[in-house]
Amino acid sequence: MFLPDYIRKTIDILNSKGYKAYAVGGCVRDSLMGKDANDYDVTTNALPVEIAECFKDHTCLDFGMKHGTITVIMEEKVEITTFRIDSEYKDNRHPDSVSFTDSLFEDTCRRDFTINAIAYSPKEGYIDHHNGISDIKNKVIRTVGDAEERFSEDALRILRALRFASVLGFDIEESTEKAIRTLKHLLNNISAERIFTEFTKLLCGKNAKYVLEEFHEVFEVFIPELVPMIGFEQNNPHHIYDVYKHTCVSLGAIEAEPILRWVMFLHDTGKPHCYTEDEKGGHFYGHYKISSDIAKKVLKRLKASNSFTDEVSTLVYHHDSVIPTTEKSVRRLIFKIGYPRARLLFKINRADALAQAPGQIEQRLERISELERLAVKINGQNECFHLNKLKINGNDLLALGLPRNKIIGKILNKLLEEVVDKSLENEREALIKRALELKDIL
Ligand code: ATP
Ligand code: MG
């Protein structure tokens, strides 16, 4: 197995003091799959104080000391964890006590899945007590030990199983799957932050579309807003899928980036709440607004950051705008949401179109490309889209004798709007003349 030099050195230092040490978990799994590891975890029989002693010439962060983890700053941060047994879980999340052990086998038994329980050291090679290597070969997620027991100890593992299925494109072994479905309600005991982190990784997996469809009942536990979407027929010539299936297909059609994946996941949550029907079929007038409110509510509940929540809900709000393919409309869009967001919106529109009725896809994609082309062109012209680029400011208006109150802001915004629309030139004289006119209108 490939190990970076600083990990070999970490293991060597521990070995030289007479301790066992192995790379373990995600890095071994990823390496066996021919992928680069995110980070390297090292496990050892040295106790936390002994680890600190071995690395006294290095910077050690010992926040995790109680749980047996010390972070050592080698070339990069390395988490070194003492072999441990987690005993008794009363609340489906945190072990009541942690005991250290001298046995690597016991440490691997506390780990979640067989594919995450393989250890490796340059001296001993792979140590695979739970047949994780064969599960990697067969692309299977299987708990270490009895699935129901393991999910009852820590229900986050339910979501981690689905996360690994999504990210790695693996199947879930039968009894593991059965336990996921039986014990899904235990996710109610898990903190919002932990759920958000795992679920976001799940959404960004290459197999997310499949996992979301197959296991929607699990996600409904923490996002009950999904329930009305499942099987909700759209009865409309633009659509061939029900609302939830369309959601999953559109999510699979956008790049694996958290904001974009969350936007696709939530963009049509409002649809079941505003369905109407006439002779032309089903309609969802105003669904963008309801969806955007639902997006805000869901992300707040899951304790996503404010900036993440704002970005997702804003993009959801705009996802259904019909923008004519003219420079003026694209200029207005850039004015309203900014150029970077406009670019994201086009990606969203494209993914949305790819999940609609096949008849009109080509035409829709062409329109989006045209909008994109116009946006790139306008952006390259370095035009004025912001008050700070307007060739007049609040002080100029005060100097003209305007009162120091709200009118100043109103006039500046109106001037900017007209400049964006190109009905007014961004030149001082023209701006002043127009400001004096506006003073009497606004
Ligand atoms: P990633 O590529 O996301 O880092 P990972 O497998 O390294 O994947 P981590 O969350 O970093 O996942 O956890 C490191 C290791 O700790 C896992 O491989 C697994 O052995 C163990 N582990 C993590 N979370 C749990 C859990 N909730 N229950 C049991 N073992 C866990
Ligand atoms: Mg990891």
Notes on the protein architecture:
It is built from 21 helices and 13 strands. With 442 residues, it is α+β, with helices and mostly antiparallel strands. Strand 8 and strand 9 form a beta hairpin. The model has no long low-confidence stretch (mean pLDDT 95).
Basic shape: globular
**In which range does the helix fraction lie?**
40-55%
User: Which stretches are low in confidence, meaning pLDDT under 50 for 5 or more residues running?
Assistant: none
| Major pleated sheet | 7 strands, mixed
List the bound ligands.
Answer: adenosine-5'-triphosphate, magnesium ion
SS content category: alpha+beta
**How far apart lie the N and C ends?**
72 Å
Spatial order of strands in the largest sheet: 3-4-5-2-1-8-9
Explain briefly what this protein structure is:
With 442 residues, the chain is of the alpha+beta class.
